[in-house]
Amino acid sequence: MSAEAGEEQVVGDDWTAPAGSWASSAANRRSMLGNRSRDTSPELALRSLVHRAGLRYRVAAKPIKGMRRTADLLFRPVRVAVFVDGCFWHGCPEHFVPPKTNPEYWREKIGRNVARDRDTDARLAAQDWLVLRFWEHEDPAACADLVKQAVDGRRHHQRPARQSTPDIPADGAAREVG
Ligand SMILES: [Zn+2]
After folding, report:
1. How far is the CA of 163 from the centre of ligand 1 (A)?
2. What secondary structure does DSSP assign to 111-159, as a single string?
């Protein structure tokens, strides 16, 4: 089912984009806001479900020291890094639509973001991290299940640690959710 054009639902929201603005669709706006704040609602929903499943994690943490890439949920002991990618900023094949103003600029910019994501994936994989990426449009419950499976799986197959740094107990960075 898809909403008729012009009947876009904006629940509990009185924000109105200027007519013709490239931010005039709710999806675009949500993605724009998502880029400003780490705590986008799909990410919060996922965090809450994962937390409820009994898993603990760090939020907005860097998997690799010195690498300026931040995972949304980080399970350091089992080396699982979870990213919730915004449909606009990360170029979702289903939802990315370049804004009408300067479409080439945006295509290029988003293309760079995507390339950076793939580079992040490769660097993490090279250091034995498991990378899980979800689109913000995906069902948080299904994503949470995959996260749990991945973390449990890595736990069971964990090899004797060859860690250079000891795991530091949660110091408040791993926030309680829910
Ligand atoms: Zn999407």
Report:
1. 36
2. HHHHHHHHHHHHHHHHTTPEEEEEETTS-HHHHHHHHHHHHHHHHHTPP
